[in-house]
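Figure-free illustration: sequence to structure, shown twice.
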Amino acid sequence: MADRHTTEKLLEGERLSGKVTLFAKVTILPGDELPYHEHHGETETYHILSGAGMYQDNDKIYPVQAGMTTFCEDGSGHAISCAGEEPLVFLAMIQKKAE
């Protein structure tokens, strides 16, 4: 089965300054998820634009909706799933940790 999510890179290459490695709009269709993964040497922020979902922050799970922002610390893990009947749409930004 094909993935039921898309990632549209909003900025790439030199426009990202080197510190930010991803700035994208992500759309997750109902019933899909971005599975749990960890970040090492970087952080990731999601800002929810529309829809509803469930966000896993390490071993804590809570609902998210439009207007909410999540933050995954360096060395931590997270996952997100679409929990509603409408697609979950959010901005995602991965930033390298300051040295």
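We now fold a second protein in the same way, so the two outputs can be compared directly.
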Amino acid sequence: MRRPTTVLGTLAAAALLAVTVPASAHAANGTLNIDDKTIHNPHGCYNNDQDAGITNNTNRTAKLYEDIDCKGAVAETVEPGEDTIADQTNSVRID
């Protein structure tokens, strides 16, 4: 039979591990709209045409990049609940 302190120590370690896992390992909750394309619970990088309409209906910030495949500089951020025109940007990332 295990000692109560061993069981409590194991439970405490499991709780600490659950709290320290980064939230970015999971998809955002909600939808990301790129023109007429709707992405449910997005995670990662999505290429878009310049001047595309971007609507961020997720719980995370979207970052718009100058180049395709989310390379180059971040040109703009779109907070949850906001939208923008992807002027001179070619990809969007949500982590």
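Summary for the second example: The longest helix spans residues 4-20.
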